[in-house]
Amino acid sequence: MLSFVALTVFVQSVFGGNLVEVLQNDGETTLIALVKQAGLADALLSGEYTIFAPTNAAFSKLPQSVLDGLQRDTTALANILKYHVVKGSIHKADASNELQLETLAGTKIRFNIYNHNHVVTVEGSKITHFDLTASNGMVHVIDTVMMPPSGSIVDLVAGNSDLSTLLSKVQSAGLAGALQGDALTVFAPTNAAFNRLGSHVLDNLRRNPQLLKEILEYHVVPHTEYSAGLYNREYLRTLDTHHDVIRLGVSSTNGVVINHRSHVTQADISATNGVVHIIDHVLIPSRYLFSAILGKKPLTMLSFVALTVFVQSVFGGNLVEVLQNDGETTLIALVKQAGLADALLSGEYTIFAPTNAAFSKLPQSVLDGLQRDTTALANILKYHVVKGSIYKADASNELQLETLAGTKIRFNIYNHNHVVTVEGSKITHFDLTASNGMVHVIDTVMMPPSGSIVDLVAGNSDLSTLLSKVQSAGLAGALQGDALTVFAPTNAAFNRLGSHVLDNLRRNPQLLKEILEYHVVPHTEYSAGLYNREYLRTLDTHHDVIRLGVSSTNGVVINHRSHVTQADISATNGVVHIIDHVLIPSRYLFSAILGKKSTMLAFVALAVFVQSVFGGNLVEVLQNDGETTLIALVKQAGLADALLSGEYTIFAPTNAAFSKLPQSVLDGLQRDTTALANILKYHVVKGSIHKADASNELQLETLAGTKIRFNIYNHNHVVTVEGSKITHFDLTASNGMVHVIDTVMMPPAGSIVDLVAGNSDLSTLLSKVQSAGLAGALQGDALTVFAPTNAAFNRLGSHVLDNLRRNPQLLKEILEYHVVPHTEYSAGLYNREYLRTLDTHHDVIRLGVSSTGVVINHRSHVTQADISATNGVVHIIDHVLIPSRYLFSAILGKK
Prior knowledge:
Elements: H1 2-15, H2 19-25, H3 29-37, E1 49-54, H4 56-60, H5 64-72, H6 74-82, E2 85-87, E3 100-102, E4 108-114, E5 119-122, E6 125-134, E7 137-142, H7 153-158, H8 164-172, E8 184-189, H9 191-195, H10 199-207, H11 209-217, E9 220-221, E10 235-237, E11 245-251, E12 255-258, E13 262-271, E14 274-279, H12 301-315, H13 319-325, H14 329-337, E15 349-354, H15 356-360, H16 364-372, H17 374-382, E16 385-387, E17 400-402, E18 408-414, E19 419-422, E20 425-434, E21 437-442, H18 453-458, H19 464-472, E22 484-489, H20 491-495, H21 499-507, H22 509-517, E23 520-521, E24 535-537, E25 545-551, E26 555-558, E27 562-571, E28 574-579, H23 600-614, H24 618-624, H25 628-636, H26 640-643, E29 648-653, H27 655-659, H28 663-671, H29 673-681, E30 684-686, E31 699-701, E32 707-713, E33 718-721, E34 724-733, E35 736-741, H30 752-757, H31 763-771, E36 783-788, H32 790-794, H33 798-806, H34 808-816, E37 819-820, E38 834-836, E39 844-850, E40 853-856, E41 860-869, E42 872-877
Parallel strand pairs: 1-7, 8-14, 15-21, 22-28, 29-35, 36-42
Antiparallel strand pairs: 1-2, 3-4, 4-5, 5-6, 6-7, 8-9, 10-11, 11-12, 12-13, 13-14, 15-16, 17-18, 18-19, 19-20, 20-21, 22-23, 24-25, 25-26, 26-27, 27-28, 29-30, 31-32, 32-33, 33-34, 34-35, 36-37, 38-39, 39-40, 40-41, 41-42
């Protein structure tokens, strides 16, 4: 009894107790009271379960009559409570959108994940607190009591007398089968909603089954959308064959409104195959508003006016009216002047609408000229119009659409700043819906390009030198490819190189070709997508990068020296930016580009140039960044010359990083220059490695002969190398690259098994690993081991240790529970993180991370972190980790 009580106390301290105790600790008193009243408390302790636990506030949202009824009918109460419980431990990490799990009530519950607001729901109830771990399962806290559905969507409609018209229409259109599909959302119009259409429209729907079918399908979304996932100005594609969209307005005052008119009057009615929202108006796709839905009855002026008012209230009017409502008065005036207003009402179009401010950015002479030449004006305006309704959701990077002018416009999506452009013009307002199309507002008037990039260069006399060089190098064909960005040096830019360099370029066509390719980026980069300290890979075979500096004062500067003097000149196959200096890849600065002439004066001049462009060579870049300790040690180890003899990437510890080393270690390294040189070489790899080259678990061989490992932790945007956080990326030097790190990296002593074998305080762990036959598994790559000390094993007590000796399978599973199958350094750990382990049950460990350290499963402390091995990392801990399923069973043996 004493050992059982002791273990119970242990379990409560680690896992917060059993499921009932976890609910008690979290304050779910109403749920606990109902569980006990329904006689389910013992059942919840007899196995491993996950409970979706409504808060006290969730129960208080139920009508009192419902709560009273449940308390009187314990069978119904038990059924509802069982509907909140599934077998096994389900973690947040196990959830996926539309995942269904069978409950103890025998019916299923559905997960939905809404990425835009990071909400996870179960049967539409928002999970407000995840992964409360109990000794026999898991608790997720939810904000609404879930009611088991009465059946499928069709069953639900059939059982609601206020939806009888909808039911008859569904049956008439032969849609009942389609509504038995899974993961559907139905916006269900009431009988009164259908009556609002009027007898003439209803008659036409009876006569035209295809029209009826399309209108009913327009009420169905082919995925599950509960209220918790809806947001203002969201567009949802529907089930109809035209993939029409409905537009949502969501606010605290009006709730959910569809297409500006139809209100959701009852939301989130769960069905076994989705969800139903009841609405007060029938939804009509815009293409039918003025056509078939009116039938053959002549349209009176009164009915036309009434329908026009309806359309304006729903869609904001036709395209011209939407532009008027949005205040694009200059565009409207020019459209009318060009005689295009009627054309824009004769079909379905998408307009990319420049604002009044966009037109005011045009030179007055250009605007005056367009107003005099209505043909040219009409062509430019048609260049802003494409056929059909194009939504923001339809856009993809480099997508091209043909305009009414006959030429194409190009979309670009820049994820880093969430900007979408069309021909380089930023879209500032998306998806203004009209009765006959769509409007997107843009900040710049788009001018049709004069041709391809080569045509543009050929047509600009200030780029004649570039044109001749492109032709000499045989690059004209390559520049006819699609989606290119060219940084085009002017004639003056080439002249700045000097006659000697120009002569050398004439003599060396391969060098000329590589330098010209260094001006070409193989994707479209308009100014709206550029950002400060961005690196762009170029077209040359070495994939050299150019470095951008972007500021409000200097505009765009490339490689610290070359200014963009004219930006965003659109071509049919990309964009051109004109620059005032020729760009030279760093590897040529001290070599071929000088030819055979190399006076001291020329060398000094070029050295000054290189320092201004790249910040100098690697040693100079380190000096400029203030890494004085590293520089002193590099010189002491005699490595300075070696770092200037090739192209390298240095992972440079800061002065503060060196100061974190024990003074005795630093003193020892300064006395032993061989060991010092080895550690410094461990921070250097061959070639230029950019941030963009890094990938999780990537390994690179260092000059020391051993490898270093990158890890990328997306949740906190941290990148580490051997666990050391990179604090400053991509400091470019003339002969390589520098990344600044916050910790000195020490070469590992060997693999994880070697490391354990070499630590006398881990001898018990070593013997257990050997007994369980796990040494081979621990030779795998990219592992994290939480390694218990000898004292940690002793804390288990002799009885448990004896049982582990007798039961090799149990021992194996417990040891595997200490291994995570990917590399987790401290910089990537976060509070309340759950990590899956290597054991066959994929048990998880729970981390508590604070300023005081890392604690696992509420009890085991990391006493020594981030011990790198050649195949991963080891963290030493002070308690053995036990999977919860063993706490009350086999681990106790038969005693």
